[in-house]
Structures are given as C-alpha cells and as structure tokens.
Design a protein that fits this description.
Residues 71-93 are annotated as: Disordered. By secondary structure, the protein is mainly α. The chain has one domain (6-80). The protein has helices spanning 6-68, 77-80. It is rod-shaped, with a radius of gyration of 30 Å. The N and C termini lie far apart (82 Å).
Length: 93
C-alpha cells in the first residue's frame, strides 16, 4: 500500500480538474462542429432539391415547347434551350 503525500494529492486533484475541463471543452467543440455540419448538410440538401426542381421544370418547359411549338412567356430563349447551364439558379424566371 502506497501512502500519498499532500503534494501528490494536490497534483492529482489538479490533473482531475484539468482533464474534466479539457473533456468539457472537447465535448462543446464536438457538439458545435456537429451542429454546424448538420446545418451545412441540410442547406446543401435543400439547394440540391431546389436546383433539381428548377432543372426538371425547365426540361418540362422545353419538352412542352417542342411538342406544342408554343413559347412560354417569361422564359428566356437560353432557359428554354437544351444547353441551359445546370449551374444557373433560375433567377431569370
């Protein structure tokens, strides 16, 4: 059996306090990182959904124009063409 001196106990107490503080800070950091990641992933998912909707909507407009020969008011010729850039956000509509 080992007998601890007061200085040993103080050192152990310091180590325990330091470890618990570090663990709490590490936990808070991980929690904040996960929260930011969740927000960014949800925003990216939403952007992909919106981009897909716009792209598919414009494909439908092109198909309708080809089948009927009717021009859609408010849709620019570039938006109605097959080479409309997929990176466009559709603000022109």
């Amino acid at each position: 059996m080992r007998i601890l001196k007061v200085s040993d106990i103080e050192h152990l107490l310091f180590e325990v306090r330091h470890m618990s503080r570090y663990t709490e800070e590490e936990f808070l950091f991980k929690e904040a990182r996960d929260h930011i990641y969740d927000i960014e992933v949800k925003a990216l998912e939403q952007q992909c959904i919106e981009d897909g909707f716009i792209r598919d909507f414009l494909k439908g407009v092109r198909l309708m124009q080809r089948k009927t020969g009717v021009q859609v008011e408010g849709v620019t010729p570039s938006q109605a063409s097959d080479d409309f850039p997929s990176g466009s956000d559709g603000d022109e509509i």
